[in-house]
Amino acid sequence: MRDLAAEAGVNPNTMQRALAELEHTGLLYSQRTAGRFVTDHTEQITKKRKELAMEQIHIFLSSMKDMGYTAEETVELIRQAIKEG
Questions:
Q1: What residues contact 76, with CB distance under 8 A and at least 6 apart?
Q2: Quick one: 47 exposed, middle or buried, by C-beta within 10 A (0-12, 13-18, 19+)?
Q3: In the chain, fewer beta carbons within 10 Å around the N or the C end?
Q4: Distance in angstroms (rounded) separating the CA atoms of residues 69 and 72
Q5: What is the CA radius of gyration of the chain?
Q6: d(CA 16, CA 7)
């Protein structure tokens, strides 16, 4: 735990809480003598990725609205950005 926390540049307690939260969401699981592992349940991973993506989209849309863009203007800007690659 200490090595992982040092590598991430955080306090070991912070790392412990982060890993506990990942276990709570089902992305990690523990085996008492072997340690922690990332889940291989693709359904759970897909669900969490979608949740994280939606959070980012909502933040982005809120920022665009704050700048005065309508939903239609935002969609058009996204289309332009995708074409530009």
A1: none
A2: middle
A3: C
A4: 8
A5: 19
A6: 14
